[in-house]
């Protein structure tokens, strides 16, 4: 590999994890107001394996997936004043078209990133951006969660869910989560006030007076959640393709506002997330850490739907055999 190339995990066809291959490709060059970041760790999210299998919003390959990055600024483009080479940063590449985190280097607008929180290593930092921004934008920007609200988080032990529990708690909410019983102790430790074992209990029969629902599941979870809600409540769906037919009309009839959303880059929200993490009020639970070369295994594990928290890939620093995880 030369100084102008890098390793990345790419695919030429759609399909299962086996289509992912480590390739050598051109190292990107930062343009005006951009930074070149040497990737130390990259987080995985369900959107990665969905795009790998179907093309999703990206269409046909080839492409390099990944949106979550933690690393070190290597170079800056013309007019970039907020960072200098050597600064440690983390952030979410522009979703969906800024993908490319599963590589040794990425370029992006400088304000895509914020400084890595003190006391948080690159692995935990890389686990935060997309999932935490999704939770923040749903709960804070869309639903305006505040002290005293009752918030129901579905799949509360998942990548978005476990961060949403903590963000809602930091806003002063009473947090209810659905999760298997084996994950209840973890969620209590993250601040959940009530937990429902969805395998044993129908949450729609037991949960009441909810102000905000975060629906990470789609399907019939939206309609069933309406039965738990107060009039004037807000339900936010993160599964745009999984909304039940006629759900909007059902929500309106129940006196509930229904919204669906995709995550967006948000420098101010990412700084707020970093502040919570630095204060010890927001922590990414790490399920698995694997090297970049085992991206296919990471995808296969994520697709089981049985992970708790996040899967993270580490990327060896150029010229070394060990991941840069200081």
Task: Describe this entry's structure for a reader.
The model is unreliable at 318-326 (pLDDT under 50). Strand 10 (174-178), helix 5 and strand 11 (194-196) form a beta-alpha-beta unit. The chain has helices spanning 46-54, 122-126, 129-142, 159-170, 184-190, 203-206, 221-226, 247-253, 267-278, 295-303, and strands spanning 5-11, 21-26, 34-43, 63-64, 68-76, 88-92, 105-109, 113-115, 150-153, 174-178, 194-196, 210-215, 229-237, 257-260, 286-291, 310-314. The chain is 26% helix and 27% strand. Strands 3, 5, 6, 7, 8, 15 and 16 form a 7-stranded mixed sheet that branches. With 326 residues, it is α/β, with parallel strands linked by helices.
List key phrases describing it:
326 residues, alpha/beta, six-stranded parallel sheet, 10 helices, 16 strands, globular, disordered C terminus
Per-chain topology:
Elements: E1 5-11, E2 21-26, E3 34-43, H1 46-54, E4 63-64, E5 68-76, E6 88-92, E7 105-109, E8 113-115, H2 122-126, H3 129-142, E9 150-153, H4 159-170, E10 174-178, H5 184-190, E11 194-196, H6 203-206, E12 210-215, H7 221-226, E13 229-237, H8 247-253, E14 257-260, H9 267-278, E15 286-291, H10 295-303, E16 310-314
Parallel strand pairs: 9-10, 9-12, 10-11, 12-13, 13-14, 15-16
Antiparallel strand pairs: 1-2, 1-4, 3-5, 3-7, 3-16, 5-6, 6-8
Helix pairs in contact: 3-4
